[in-house]
Amino acid sequence: MSDNPQPSSTHCGDTSPATPSPNDHLRNLLQLVAQSDRPAFAQLYEATSAKLYGTVLRILKERSRTDDVIQDVYVTIWQKAAQFKASRASPITWMVAIARHSAIDELRRQSRAPHESEDVLSQISADETGAHEHIEHEQDARQLHACLEELEANHQNMVRLAYLDGWSRADLAAYFEQPVNTVKTWLHRALKQLKGCLAS
Amino acid sequence: MTGHDDIDMLAAEYVLGTLEVDERAEAAQRRKHDSNLDAQILAWEARLAPLCNEIQDVAPGPDLLERIERRIAVLETEKDASESSTTQLLGLHRRLRFWRWSTAFASAAALALAIMLVVPFDSTPPQPPFVAVFSQNDQQPAFMLAVDLDNRRLNVQPVTAEPLPDRTYQLWIKSAELGPDPRSVGVLNDDLSLDADALRDYDPDLLKQATFGISIEPPGGSPTGQPTGPAIHGYLYPTDQRGRSQHL
Asked: TM spans, by residue (chain B) (predicted)?
């Protein structure tokens, strides 16, 4: 797994403009897609669909809903490729953002069954362990992890559950047995601390 | 809390996904015209993006790309259909006049080509030849298609188009009478020519009204029977005053 070449082309948070080929490759493909180049679109799909599918499935938990959202996501990418500004975002971050927002919108439209399991937190820490081998060479990722580690445990878990699993304030309030306003306050505190840490 | 902080937290929670449904919809609208909010959102997307490396890649089902491509093909067909409205037709007429009267200023080569196309057919009047100009992005014409309606013979000429490695050009015809989908006229030969009899089965009146398209396809032509690559379009225009006045 550690020498799997595939994930490197779709690393998230790869925002450095000096990064060589994988991101450049996606950028070139997006440029071609902006000119309605269908073979380039198929290549872009091959290079990114597992990443986007995993992201949306993690939030929606159901394959059939994920299938629908992923279709919308790639149609949106086809339509908006011309609006992608390489100077403002990395291509994979831009695509993941489209996927996450579509998944969260879908989740809010029709919420799935309430989170029944007690083991969500053990699940996220397990994933985290597996993830290190993907991202160990990426400074952005290391820094974000270091900064997340500095947060209070509950704050850190809230950020993860919201970002990765699409939990709403109400979901978090129920899980952490806190009023919604307290959750909002905690989230803001966590996000500000994170931003300060990342800027330092 | 200052206004700046408010926007920063709005952006952060928008990216995190924890805004209430109405706040979220409002933020999505507002970022379209509020460049400051949009910039903060992009900054937060970049900050939190490494988190998604914690998510395992999951391969989608094998047929999903095909379903997406089908939806895109429908969208593109609808776009083409709305573009071939009167406005586009008038635009093309104007462009044709541009080609006919001011080609000398624009491109001496294209003028030479137009003459080349017209001459062989002019030797057999009565009906003037019709010409379609295929131009990409309103720039130089890529191809010209001349059709002798009486004899149902065609002549495709590349202007700026060049043979592509591992790709072929395919000529399509589209007309309401032929149904919603384009039909293949034929795959262009390596020298970008096409069999002169390729249109013999079509009625001249239909040919006059039809849209023609040239798309870029894999070797041997579209595997699906429909254009799969980028396409350019043209209408047939008469090349003399008599025909033109009928057409306008």
From this structure: 98-121
Nearest to A40 by CA among A11, A3, A81, A85: A81
A3/A76 same-domain check: yes
- Report chain B's C-alpha Rg in angstroms: 25
Of A51, A58, A67, nearest to B61 by CB-CB distance is: A67
Contact state of A104 with B17 under an 8 Å Cβ cutoff = yes
CA distance B82 to B79: 5
Q: Chain A contacts of B46, Cβ < 8 Å?
A: 13, 15, 89-90, 93
Going from the C-alpha of B48 to that of each of A26, A27, A82, B32, B91, the distances in angstroms are: 20, 20, 24, 21, 48
A182 and A106 fall within a common domain: no
Residues in B touching A185 (Cβ below 8 Å) = none
Contact status, residue A62 vs residue A166, Cβ threshold 8 Å: no
Torsion sign, CA atoms B188, B194, B197, B200: positive
Which residue from A12, A36, A160 is facing B50, i.e. has the nearest CB?
A: A12
CATH of the domain at A140: 1.10.10.10
Please give the tally of structural domains in chain A.
2
- Cross-chain residue pair A162–B18, CB shorter than 8 Å: yes
Interface contact flag, B53 A49, Cβ < 8 Å: no
Greatest Cα pair distance in chain A: 51
Cross-chain Cβ contact A166/B57 below 8 Å? no
A81 is written with which tokens?
């490729």
For chain B, say whether A61 makes contact (Cβ under 8 Å). no
Q: Please state the φ and ψ torsions of residue A70, each to the nearest 5 degrees.
A: -65, -35
A122, A138: one domain: yes
- The model's pLDDT over B192-230, given as tens digits with 9 standing for 90+, comes to 888 888 888 888 888 877 777 777 788 888 888 888 766
pLDDT per residue as tens digits for the range A98-152: 999 999 999 998 765 445 444 555 455 444 434 433 433 478 888 999 999 999 9
Say if residue A30 is in the same domain as residue A123: no
Pick the residue from chain B with its C-alpha nearest to A6.
B57
Across-strand partners of B232?
A: B214
A residues 128-157 closer than 8 Å to B (CB): 128, 130-131, 134-135, 138, 140-141, 144-145
Give the residue numbers spanning the domain of A131: 116-200
Write out the two tokens for B79.
């776009």
Domain stop point among A96, A112, A128 = A112
The residue from A48, A83, A112 where one domain ends is: A112
We report the CATH number of the domain holding residue A47 as 1.10.1740.10
